[in-house]
Amino acid sequence: MKMNKTLLSAAVAVGLLSTSTVTHAAGFQLAEYSATGLGRAYAGEAAMADGADAQWRNPAMLTYLEGTQVSVGAIYVDPNIDIEGTSGGNTPASSKDFAHSAVIPSFYVSHKYNDKFALGFAAGTNYGMETDLGTDFAGANHGNEASVISMELNLNAAYQVLENVSIGGGIRYIMAEGSFGAVAASDYLFMKKGDTLKYMEGEDTAWGWQVGTAWQINENNRLGFTYKSEVDLTLEGHANGRGFNMLQPNKKDAGSMDLALPATAELASFHQLTEKVAVHASVNWTNWSSFKELVADFPTESVPIKEENWEDNYRFAIGTTYQMTPKLALRSGIAYDTSAVSEEHRTATIPETDRTWLSIGAGYQWSEQLTLDAGFTYILAKDAKMVEDDASSAPFGGDFEGEVTGSIWLVGIQANYRF
Fold first, then answer.
1. CATH code for the domain of 284
2. Taking the model in full, what pTM does it have?
3. In the chain, what is the straight-line distance between the N-terminal and C-terminal CA atoms, in Å?
4. β-strand 165-183 against 253-261: which pairing, if any?
5. Nearest partner of 160 among 63, 66, 69, 225, judged by Cα
């Protein structure tokens, strides 16, 4: 039935995107690729060459890494996100600390083949989060649980074309899966409060690419630029719940939705001011303006879900590195992420907002081969108001109007070994 397909469309869309309430970059991005970079708020990453992890943000930086290097690390994310509002006009609707903590691992290998050519392999993630608002949340008819999990593998290569210019590129393989659940927030027809209204899960894999370049202006100054392609996913899965079939809530309906992970670019610089002090900065751009609407595809038709009208996002960051002793380096940084959604288009499923990063970190050279890094960041999110008045969900609990507030703590460690 068409009603079933429309509900499935909404389930897929919200399931993939509602996790954006707790992501750490714009939209539903994750920025946490390296504990080393975390300590400087990821400032100047496309121009940095600390270890094998440098290839994740700019494959051209592989030419700056001598021998064979391995970087292994993890970042612990502790979001503290609350939502407060009303449902159906006057019913209080709130949920405290509804975003789950997580550990984000990473692994990188680089190999300098000769004086000009280098290869690299990278494993990390750019997207992922999990939320659980609880079945008692008065706005649960719009969604009460969601998760997005992704893994990305890169094969990269770089070549020094001139004495002071390097270029690099790589192929990206992305594996992604998402799930979403919603329950009735009030009794309606044969449904009881707390009954599963809809549940959906889906997965897909896709290919992308990236290119980058680095210009060593002189001994103390360097510029880096990198570009990552858009990645097209078609998440295929199934859905069930009384919102799809009142009498057969366990019946599965198949469907899919195209989701484009947007193109990104970064311009970064590195400046060694003195023997001990370096400053680095970057500007990041994400092509979120390509995200205009969501459309669900079925064997016989395509069903429009919702217009989103997102905007391009920019991130500005500046950081410092202070070589306190020959073995100990101290890092710090500050960054500002602009929202990918204007005030008029913000909704309960995507309460995007501006974010401020405050970071500190350190690196210690344990031996000639081994360096240990640690980073700490506090992210303060601007309070975000939203209204959700989806007609298909309103009968099961009413419209929702509220505000999301919160902050995120991140702690990372990393080991870099040079053979």
1. 2.40.160.60
2. 0.86
3. 62
4. unpaired
5. 63
